[in-house]
Amino acid sequence: MDDTAGGGSMERAALRDAFRRLGLDEGEVGVWAAGEAEEGTPQLARYRFLSALWPKMIDTWRHDTERNRIARRLLAAGANHEELIQFARAVAYDTVFSMLYYLEDDGRDNCDDLPAWALVQTRADGQPTAQVLGALFEDLLGLDPSGNDGADIVPLLPGPWVKQADRTPGDDTA
After folding, report:
1. Considering the entire predicted model, what is its pTM?
2. Residue 2 near residue 37 (C-beta atoms within 8 A)
3. Which of 46, 53, 90, 120 could form a disulfide with 153 if both were Cys (CB 3.0 to 4.6 A apart)?
4. pLDDT by residue (tens digit) across 95-146?
5. ∠ CA(21), CA(24), CA(25), 5° rounding?
6. Left if phi > 0, otherwise alpha if psi is -120 to 50, otherwise beta: which for 163?
């Protein structure tokens, strides 16, 4: 669909502008905007939510180790600063990923009669829409602002999705 065509073209152009305002790389703007315009998925809300997680919850450890009492003690005891940051970011990433996964699959087996939850898009005035932001965990790693898809922390992550070959050399804990 061409952005200058009639019909939904204004909507597509507005979506593209909104993604740019959020700082999305120009090469990705069309992909994310097309998902919303053509498939009806809430890609703008999805991107806005996910792109904020890295700087606010994962990469904050790049700068905050000195403010953490335990991190200061580890550094004073001779811990390598870069490795401590890498470890803290890996733990933060794993926590964020696990929470996003839990939003999708809360293990509600035998709980069909109990309340559940979902993360939904809201309008600008804060009123919820019917658009559910699902499977957010699937896009988290790809939104690493470094552009490296978490390559520096993936080898440290626990779990079955990390292949043995991806672990840090000399790591015999797997």
Report:
1. 0.78
2. no
3. 90
4. 999 999 988 887 777 777 888 888 999 988 999 999 999 999 999 999 999 9
5. 125
6. beta
